[in-house]
Each structure stands twice: as structure tokens, then as C-alpha cells.
Write a structure and sequence with these properties.
The structure is a homodimer.
Chain A: E1 5-12, H1 17-27, E2 34-40, H2 46-58, E3 62-66, H3 70-82, E4 87-89, H4 92-102, H5 118-132, H6 140-144, E5 147-151, H7 157-165, E6 171-175, E7 194-198, H8 201-214, H9 226-243, E8 246-249, H10 255-265
Parallel strand pairs in A: 1-2, 1-3, 3-4, 5-6, 5-7, 7-8
Helix pairs in contact in A: 2-3, 5-7, 7-10, 8-9
Chain lengths: ~280, ~280
């Protein structure tokens, strides 16, 4: 760990989520550097903005801002220029370029990304849908879903469903257990909407042993038995072949990565926006 | 709607989530401009990168890239410079500045933000926790949760729980109905972890009428009755006072905004990172 302590100030008139993401992506590249992230969000008054900038200056911080009002952007950029503060203005460059090309004025509404429009309510519905139709709770969900996820235990079905729901997609999932009853509705779903999740047997074995330990149980139960896992995976793969759906091995993938692959493969990228 | 059609190309060696967020925040400012978002993600080969850049050039696109390899950043920035393409490099400025200050080399691992570390698995657990302890399903969850959300019907408890779970926080929620049994565990929870959600009666009335209509039912049932709603809200507010928890009126707030307020008030911002 180096001695340097670096401050990054997120300054925003809204949630500051976008700026935080950039900061976090950068921090993830420097695991040995001490970095303190400070958020000054929902700034609506000029005084508040100046106070945040002054604090950032006191810490010789890296400033990342997402400000939508012309005046606030101007104040922040001027202040950082005068005080020799490193400043990244995330909103203006793209906004100005769109303005230059279209001649349209931006709405300059802070947090426009989070406005309570139809898209927003669809997303909320998608999240409630994911909880309602998680874990094969109700097979009727398959017919209404944008995506149906299938997979044996510990292939991230639930977190993946929730992550995709947050992107405005209705997801139902079904855990696969050999000899389990496969609901008839599944055969009525367009295979292009179905995703079969699979994993490496060795990894599943390890994950399941850990899980048993966490429960204070014997790690070598049939749940974590390698032959048993192999059998489950074969059952799942057979079903995927019969259904004709895509198959993704989640072994080395985070849910963000798996989600991105699903959106690409199912051609749902365009429907996956927040706003 | 203006005739201009503007292309924004997201080019990334990982999910491209950060760049997409910037693009979407900008698009949200220009509702009357036709903007097409194209994603070229998980780029690992130089050829792929050059193809994506060529396509962007063919569409005279605005390019936003998150690339971590030195070589790819260099290729992208050079190409855009030579072809006079508008280009926003999101990763390099902050990464270079951290390097300048710390003297440390970045790991240059693509998708480092999504690495499968302990933090990642904690987040997956948090998502499963949210589903398990949604809707007061099991009061034991209250004692283990980082945040306990309380609220009458239609105050966004479920989506809010899921959104916060995605930020690595364990959330349990309890719907409030007058005269309902309040689980004894709730009184054992530190009030600083509890959030009481409330809403404006008129808005709740409207939301609930819509919900009844969506179900094909009479919109003027007792569920949407204004006196009934008032009574429910009073019951909830009384409970919040007794518990001594913070209260948030979600009337004009998106879940992102409510979540940001909760993190600020409960001083959980520092724990809410992805990586």
C-alpha cells in the first residue's frame, strides 16, 4: 500500500451514480492505492456547489462532476481551472456535441435519467415480476417473460434475474433438478427467449461445499457430490438441446458479464435502457 | 422530432455499462432528438476494435469508450483523431491522474470492476437476501439486515430493496397494513437501520386505482379509498415515530433517488460500492 491518499470528489445535481461508476472503475484498476471517494450529490444551490468545490480543493481532490445546469457546469469548471484542480466534466462534452449536431436545446433537468416516465414504471414492474416469478414459483410467468432463465442450483439465476429486471426486462427463472417436473408452459415459450445456464462441475462442487459449510453442515453431502452434479448438468444440457435455447457457461463470468452476453445474444440491448 | 439521426457508439473491452450510463444520461436531456445507441462490447482483439471504430466512422458517430489496455486506448484515440470523430475517453483521464499521483501502475485488467472477489460474492448474497426477506416473509431477516424498509402498499419497497441489494447491502422489507401484527424482531433492530417509507395520499389513491384497472377490477375498492389510505398512512407514521426511524416521502422520487437519500441518511455510502 503506498502512502499517498487520493481523494475523488463526485459532485452532482442528481444521484451521482454515473460519476461514481467511473470512479469505481478507475479505483478497481489501482488496488494498492488508498483512494477515498466523497459524494456531494443532489446539489441544488450555488452555495452548496461552492462548498463542495472548496472541500475538494482542501483535499487536492480529483473532481468528477455530472451537472446539468449551464451555470453550475460553468462554476465548477471555472473553479477547478482557477484552483488547478483536476476536473472531469462528464455531461457537457456529449451534451454539447448533441446540441451542435441537432440544434436542439437540452432540457437541463437534473436527474432527467431518473424521471418518473412510462419507462420507469415498466422497470419497477419488471423488478416486481422478477421477485414474483423467481425460482419457478409460478409457471404462468414464462409466457409473459422477456427472458426465461433455466439452470441448476448455483448458476446465479436469482441475482441475474434481478440485474436484468433493473434493465427493464421481465425475467422468470426455473431451477433444474433431475427428474423434476418441467412445467408444460416452458414448451410454449419461444426458444429465442430462453437461456440455459450451466457451470463447470468442479466449480459447482466447490461452491456447494462452501455453502454446506456456511450452513454448518457436512460439506460432502449428495448436494456437493461430483457425480451427482455431473448428472444434474447432463439433465440440464439435454433439456437445453430439446428446447433449442442458447447455453451460457457462467463459470468465470460475473452477473454483469453474463447479463451483457444474454442481451447481445437475445438482441435485447436496445430494450435494456434506463431512460 | 428533428430529422437528425445521431449515432453514439459505446466501445468497451468489458460490459460497457459505464459508457452506456453516460450516453443514456445525455440522451435523457434530448427527448426530441433521434439518437441511436450502438454497443460494441467485450472487445479483446485489435481487429474487432478497428472494425468497431470503422463502423463508428461510417455513421459519423459520437464515440464513448472504456478501454483499459494502453494499446487499445491509444488505437481508439488515434483513430478518432485522424478521422475527426468526436471521442470521449472515459477511463484514461482518471487512471492517468491516479498514476501521476501514486506512481503505481494500473492493473489494466479489463472488467476489473466485475472481478469475482469477496465483494462480488457479498453482493450476490445481498440479492438473494433481498428476495428471501422481501415482503416480511421471514422476520428473522430484520436482525441480519443492513437496512429494514417499512411502508404501506405501493411505496416501492420491493424494487428499492433489489436496487440497494445490487449495491451490496442486505435489505429486508415489511409491508404495513393497519392492525397488522408487527413482528417483535422489529423492536430489536437499531432504529438507525430502519427507514419508514410514506407517500402522498392522492398519489397512492391514483396508483392503486390504476393497479385495480390493470387487474380488470373496479378501481374504487377499499384498497384505493382515500380515507382508508389516510388511515394506513397514519398507522405507518405512528409506528415510525415509536420506532424513531427516519421517514422518506417517495411521492416524487425515483428508486435511484430514494436509494441515494437512504445511503446518505444511514451513512452507508461508503459501503455501497460495486468493487
Amino acid at each position: 500500500m503506498t502512502k499517498t491518499n487520493i481523494y475523488i470528489y463526485i459532485i452532482s445535481d442528481s444521484v451521482g451514480e454515473t460519476a461514481a461508476k467511473i470512479a469505481q472503475a478507475s479505483i478497481a484498476q489501482y488496488l494498492n492505492v488508498n483512494i477515498t471517494l466523497v459524494r456531494r450529490t443532489f446539489i441544488t444551490e450555488k452555495d452548496e456547489l461552492l462548498r463542495a468545490l472548496k472541500d475538494a480543493d482542501d483535499h487536492d481532490a480529483i473532481v468528477i462532476h455530472t451537472l446539468t445546469s449551464d451555470q453550475f457546469v460553468h462554476i465548477a469548471n471555472e473553479y477547478c481551472g482557477e484552483h488547478n484542480l483536476f476536473c472531469m466534466d462528464l455531461m457537457s462534452p456529449i451534451m454539447n456535441e448533441i446540441y451542435r449536431r441537432s440544434g436542439e436545446q437540452p432540457s437541463r433537468v437534473a436527474g432527467a435519467l431518473h424521471s418518473l416516465n412510462q419507462n420507469y414504471f415498466n422497470r419497477i414492474n419488471a423488478m416486481e415480476f422478477a421477485v414474483k416469478y423467481d425460482d419457478g414459483k409460478d409457471p404462468k410467468g414464462f409466457l409473459e417473460a422477456d427472458i426465461v432463465l433455466l439452470g441448476v442450483s448455483r448458476t446465479s439465476k436469482t441475482p441475474l434475474s434481478l440485474f436484468l429486471a433493473n434493465k427493464n426486462l421481465k425475467v422468470a427463472n426455473l431451477p433444474l433438478v433431475p427428474q423434476a417436473h418441467i412445467p408444460k408452459q416452458l414448451w410454449e415459450v419461444d426458444p429465442k427467449k430462453i437461456v440455459g445456464l450451466t457451470n463447470d462441475p468442479i466449480i459447482l462442487n466447490k461452491i456447494r461445499q462452501e455453502r454446506m459449510k456456511a450452513y454448518g453442515l457436512d460439506p460432502n453431502t449428495s448436494y456437493s457430490n461430483l457425480d451427482k452434479i455431473q448428472e444434474e448438468l447432463e439433465f440440464a444440457n439435454d433439456l437445453y438441446r430439446q428446447l433449442g435455447c442458447i447455453v451460457i457457461n457462467v463459470a468465470d463470468l460475473s452477473i454483469e458479464e453474463t447479463a451483457a452476453i444474454i442481451l447481445k445474444e437475445l438482441k435485447l440491448e436496445d430494450r435494456s435502457y434506463y431512460a
